[in-house]
Design brief:
Elements: E1 4-8, E2 16-27, E3 30-35, E4 40-44, E5 46-51, E6 56-60
Parallel strand pairs: 1-6
Antiparallel strand pairs: 1-2, 2-3, 3-4, 5-6
Length: 65
């Protein structure tokens, strides 16, 4: 099972949003994270990077068009 830790803006301990994330859904500029305990966290933005072998995902503010 691959679980990830999600960070906002950059991978730094103080920017951690949620650990043990098993599901990430993106819709209309909102990233919804769900961890293995079923807790959800929603943050505005878009996925900037996803290191699946390292178990880290970074979400950044959405760039306006």
């Amino acid at each position: 099972m691959c679980l990830s830790t999600v960070y906002k803006i950059e991978k730094r301990p103080e920017n951690e949003v949620l650990k043990n994330v098993m599901l990430i859904e993106c819709e209309d500029g909102v990233v919804t994270l769900t961890d293995i305990m079923g807790r959800e966290e929603r943050i505005e933005g878009e996925i900037a990077s996803a290191d699946l072998t390292g178990g880290t995902v970074v979400v950044r503010p959405r760039l306006s068009a």
